[in-house]
Amino acid sequence: MFSANRLVSTLSWCPVLFIVAIFVGEAFSYLFIFCYKILWLYYAREWQSIVAGVFFALLWTLAFWSYIAAAFTPPGFPPEAWTYWARLRQEEAQKPMRSWAPGHMGWCHKCTDVRPERAHHCSVCGRCVMRMDHHCPWIGNCVGFTNHKFFLLLGLWGSLVCIYVVATSLSTFLVAFSDIGLLIKKAGVGLLWWSGFMLACIFAAAFGIALFILFVGHVIMVLQNFTSIEAGYPGKNPYNVGWRQNLEQLFGSPGFDWLVPIRPRRPLSDGTSFPTNSRSHPTSPNAMQIHPHPHPHANAHQGDDERPHAADTVIPMPTSEAWCDGSLSSSKGDRDGSPHARLGPGVDYAERETVDGSPVGASSEEGGVGVEGRRE
Question: Which of 35, 136, 142, 162 is catalytic?
Answer without folding.
Answer: 136
